[in-house]
Amino acid sequence: MTASLAPAEPEVREFEATVESVDGREVVLDETYFYAESGGQPADRGTIDGTLVEDVVERDGRVVHVLGEEPAGSLSVGESVSGIVDGAFRTYCARAHTASHVLYGAARRTCEDLGYAGFDISPEKVRVDLTTAAPLDDGDLVELERLANRAVWDSLPVSWETLPEDEARALDGIAFNTKTEEGAMSGDEAVRVVTVGGDGEGTAVGDGRGPASTWDVAACGGTHVRNTSDIGPISVLDRSNPGEGVTRVEFAVGPTAIDHDAAVHGAALDAATSLDARVGDLPDAVDRLREEVDRLEGELRDARADLLAARLAEFPTAAVDGSTWAIGTVDGADPNDLRGPANDFLAGDDAPDALAAVGAGGAPFVVVAVADGAAGGDGPDAGATVSAVTDEFGGGGGGGPTFAQGGGLDADPDAVVAWLRDR
Question: Is beta strand 365-370 parallel, antiparallel or unpaired with respect to 185-187?
């Protein structure tokens, strides 16, 4: 069995090893510091004797290096080769992986009935899946980010050790998920445990839940930094719910986090300038703006209703089947906008028995309203009138005896008005 030495010694980026087997582009070494993809952490990048390592996988207890092309030289069994791990990508993955533990530690201090459902590192962001008693909201994300960055600032030590499985499972509060952290299981019923905080130089952070100096403890087979201060800024990007009871938190570290925070800060400054406020006063400024918008929208609705009522009052009347109808066209109105003005109009003194308004424009519609006292018996029926209009001009609609509407009419609005008058 050839296990990767990367989790134990993540700082090693160059090494010498002996070739154990070669099968086309697949090479196995007697020892390796390349990390094989596992548990959400991607495989290391790098080269073996100058040939690009395209992928690293663990197969049948051996670490297999998949080269980008078949070796140009005679790479043969027993030969000594040089391995070089891509330092920038290894550093990013180690920082991102430790950041996921730090974020989980923050969730320990903010979430009830917390559980771990896996994580994944991509080049631009990291995700951590949490099971929680209740979905996380925006305030929870802000608090997770705040606590995680406090843990970074407080320079908590990060350590790892291999323990018997029963001893590891007995650790208070350990995050243990053998499905998502298969790399933590090192065989012989042993488990690799990663601890953030502990008895080192780090200080307690948060509300004091759990051991005072321990930020997080988890079964994990990945590569990590030695101190949380090595992570740098953590920026929470978004959340989603990929499954029942699961909240997915996405965050960034490194340049992506820096660029995201700069973009957010820039947007906040632009908004503050537009509202003539300080960034810290934006919530109050937005509340005032919302109140003003609500007031103006209310005034606009009232003005539109008054305008429609005035337009309805201008409709010429006609006698149709023994009832008096007001019939005409309206511009710039939605059928739903007409219900209130139509009912108010029909409730006035000397009002007609019924009203039919045809919408002018590219999508003609018809709205029919009947006064309460006129409906029933041999009086006009709004629903029946709309049905007759759609039978004649196409479209569809419906409603009751006192109010109905139809749309999709295939006719000129004036032709519909003329037909309604001449029934």
Answer: unpaired
Distance of CA 237 to the CA centre of its chain: 8
Q: What is the DSSP letter of 171?
A: S
pLDDT in tens, 306-325: 888 888 989 999 998 888 99
Decide if pLDDT at 220 tops 60: yes
Phi-psi label, residue 131: left if phi above 0, alpha if psi -120 to 50, beta otherwise? beta
User: Could you tell me the domains of the chain?
Assistant: 14-85 (2.40.30.130), 91-271 (3.30.980.10), 309-421 (3.10.310.40)
Strand intervals (E) in 272-344? 317-320, 323-330
- Name the residue among 247, 253, 252 with its Cα closest to residue 230: 253
Which pTM value belongs to this model? Answer: 0.73
Instruction: Report CA-CA distances (Å) from 87 to 44, 45, 90, 194, 228.
Output: 9, 9, 5, 22, 18
> Residue 344: which H helix or E strand, with range?
helix 339-346
Among 233, 225, 234, CA closest to 157: 225
366, with CB counted inside 10 A (0-12, 13-18, 19+), is: buried
| Residue 17 burial (CB count, 10 A) | 22
Angle at alpha carbon of residue 53, lines to 49 and 59, rounded to 5°: 115
Q: Is 80 exposed, middle or buried (0-12, 13-18, 19+ CB in 10 A)?
A: exposed
